[in-house]
Design goal:
- This protein is mainly α and 151 residues long.
- The chain has five helices and three strands.
- The chain has a three-stranded parallel β-sheet, with no helix packed on it.
Length: 151
C-alpha cells in the first residue's frame, strides 16, 4: 500500500474486515491501529482519503473500540496538522512517531545501510537540541488540545 495506495486500499480494507470479525467481542482494552507508518506514495493526503473507508468497515462491528491513526511520512509529528480525523468519531487516538535528533535515534541503524548515522552519538548534544525537542512536543500537545484528541 505504501508504493501503490490506490491499488492496495481495498486489500487493506478487506484485511481489516477479517480482523474485525476475528476480534469481535474482545475486551474494550484491545485497540486497533490501522497502519503503522504510512509513507512513500501513501502520503497523509492519500491516507486521509483511504482510512475513512477502513474505519467504516471496523465500526460495523466495533462502534466504540479505540482506533489509533497516524499521519504519513512515517507517522511524522510534522504531519499531524494535515491528518483529518472524522469529527463525529470520538474513539480515535492520533499517533505520531518522534525520531529527533535523527543522528541519535538512528545511529547505526542497519536498515539504513551506508546512510546510517555513526554510533557513539550522545544525547543531548546541546541546549538548542533540547529546546527544539521541547518545542516539537509543545506543538504536538497544542494539536491534541485544539483537536480534542489524545495523542
Amino acid at each position: 500500500i505504501h508504493t501503490d495506495p490506490l491499488r492496495y486500499a481495498a486489500t487493506l480494507q478487506n484485511i481489516w474486515a477479517c480482523i474485525s470479525r476475528e476480534f469481535f467481542g474482545y475486551s474494550r482494552h484491545l485497540y486497533f491501529e490501522l497502519l503503522n507508518e504510512p509513507h512513500a506514495q501513501l502520503t497523509t493526503e492519500r491516507w486521509n482519503q483511504i482510512f475513512p473507508r477502513i474505519l467504516r468497515t471496523i465500526r460495523k462491528r466495533h462502534p466504540k473500540r479505540c482506533v489509533i491513526i497516524g499521519p504519513g511520512e512515517w507517522n511524522s509529528h510534522r504531519e499531524l496538522p494535515a491528518l483529518r480525523l472524522p469529527a463525529n468519531d470520538r474513539f480515535l487516538i492520533a499517533t505520531c512517531h518522534y525520531y529527533e535528533p535523527f543522528e541519535f535515534t538512528h545511529q547505526g541503524a542497519e536498515w539504513l545501510e551506508q546512510s546510517a548515522p555513526p554510533t557513539g552519538r550522545r544525547f543531548p548534544a546541546n541546549e538548542l537540541e533540547v529546546n527544539s525537542i521541547a518545542n516539537d512536543f509543545q506543538a504536538i500537545a497544542r494539536w491534541s488540545r485544539e483537536n480534542r484528541r489524545p495523542v
